[in-house]
Amino acid sequence: MTIIKYRSDIDGLRAVAVLGVVIYHAFPRVIPGGFIGVDIFFVISGYLISGILYKGHKAGNFSFKEFYARRIRRLFPALITMLVLSFILGHRLLLTNEFQELGRQVAAGTLFLQNFLFWQESGYFDKAAELKPLLHLWSLAVEEQFYIFFPPLLILLWKKPKFLVPVMGVLLIATFILNLVMSVQNGVTDFFLTPYRAWEFLGGSLLAWWHYDRGHEEDAPLYREAMSFAGLILLVVGLTFIHRGDPYPGWRAMLPVAGTLLLMEGGRGAWINRKILSNPAVVWIGLISYPLYLFHWPLLSFVRITLGEVPDFWMTLSALGITLILSVTTFYFIEQIVRFSSSRWTVPVLIGLFAALGMAGLLCMKGILAPRSSSLGFDEVVAASQDIDYFKGYSRSIVQNYYSLYKAGGSGPKTLFVGDSHMEQCAPRILEVIDNGRAGNRGAIFLTKGGCPPIPELFNGNKEQGKNFLTREILQLGLTPDVDRVVIGANWCYYFNWGSNICSIHDRLLCSEQGRKEAMESLSEMILFLRGKGKKVYLVLSFPTNNEVDPLATVQRSLIGNFSIKKVRFSKREFLDLKGSMSITQQELMNRFEVMAVEAGAELIKPMDALEKNGEFPWRDGMTPYFHDGAHYTASFMRKNAMFLDKLIELQESQQQKQR
User: Fold this and answer.
1) How high is the pLDDT of residue 621?
2) Which of 248, 457, 481, 613 is a good FRET partner for 383, with 20 to 30 A between their CA atoms?
3) Structure-derived torsion over alpha carbons of residues 410, 416, 417, 419, reported in degrees to the nearest 10
4) For the domain with range 389-545+583-614+633-659, which CATH number is right: 3.40.190.10, 3.40.50.1110, 3.40.630.30, 3.40.50.720?
5) CB-based burial of residue 622 (10 Å sphere; 0-12 exposed, 13-18 middle, 19+ buried)?
6) 126 against 427, higher pLDDT
7) Would you place residue 124 in the very low, low, confident or very high pLDDT band (cuts 50, 70, 90)?
8) Is the CB of residue 614 less than 8 Å from the CB of residue 570?
């Protein structure tokens, strides 16, 4: 069996892979398919690591201990350096909830389970992904998971050499088919989990077997030149024409995988491999590709977290410049020294440091270790952003697989509250009145669904909401003898203006004047029907909303760790003067609701009138925000301040006299 010599062109391929990933992450429009660099890495890894395994088995001196010790020496020095830097930056720049999330990512990273963590949370291309400093470690987790199972499998196959290639071929085909199926069924699973990526490593592994078994000459006959050229074309097509919106990996991953295999099969003698991939500058980038990959994403992520999700060109370029400096320094003064150290303590020390980082991650995740922002009073901002448990202490039932049903209070007459998340945010005050005994034996029923305006016949996006929900469940509950009050509320300003493109009635969007008219008529008919059955009906108008008062959005910070709160003016007049998609202002919309409610016999609840002070909507008290996000108040604020809701559940005067 021929032993493969060092191939500078493979380091050149590493350079192509890392540059594709880095440029894509920094400037996605320049190389829209740059993320396929990870697939190139997987194929190269399968090729090189399998070559080491084949060599060890052929010589009869393969050792699991030595194999994993080499992996630790190769991976841990730069990885530990990057994690320590991330901790330092996180402590300086992050809010408490962000620092806890960083700790969770570190803990998962030290167990090489990062891909499972992000698989459970979201997709790689989600907007929030750019704000996760250690997201990129998912690929390292996939690689190490593969090398937990592959070496033992190879030992078994080595005892039956004639089965080795067929078995690996079957595994390659099987995992590729799994990848194709999963790319249609669940793209996030296909992207993050090892079984659907294994075929990429196996492709490199089979090529390594081919080269070790038959040798790979220096010469470059015409067919190898053609292979090399075809491989380059496939990579260029993949980098250029694959986009983040495409299902991936799926069949599209064949482009980088096949392209990499063809370039490696082309050999060192092919012109592209010899002149381009083996160029000293390209090879040098390939040599530092591992620390370059490790450092670039955390730095870009911290810049985006600190300065905004779309930092300017020069700031992004500066982050890449610092990435290069850190990568070069780490490669020459940490990675190379530690990797080739002769000390027997090298591996135990690396394992100990790695474990210590994992423990530090757990302490951060549990809140035992806190960031600098915590001592500056910004924990109140974080607490507000998490204060959305409107039904704390109450259990939920599910109606028709979509809608939440909560019940509270006594067994006497009941108030039915129906609507979306804006109705849900009324719950803390209603529950406060009940808990204080001011509702007597009255009870409350909440039937709600976030994003679902309570308008009969309305269809919201692709959800089975609207007609069935209202005509069957609301009216069924509303017509029960013990329900004497029905309260209807929603974020009307959103559905009839900002979010009108997702709502329709009778196939007419609410962004149209006719759709708006028919929706109000449908709501009016329901109110009239309930009134005809002897029910007292209340219509809750819109609450004020403003993305600028989102508590996390109000935090200003700099790259040197300075924190402050933005000065935001939340004017009632300016909010009501805002126009929606059909040039109707919020004030005009509220006026139409008032007229409709009066004509239908409903009593109005006007949150904006109750919450304003001197023409402004107060949005914080010192460091304590009143809003959970830009569209909802915190549960704490509503519990203490939404007294205008009390009459919806309190005993009426005649009932109070009877109780006395």
Assistant:
1) 92
2) 613
3) 140
4) 3.40.50.1110
5) exposed
6) 427
7) low
8) no
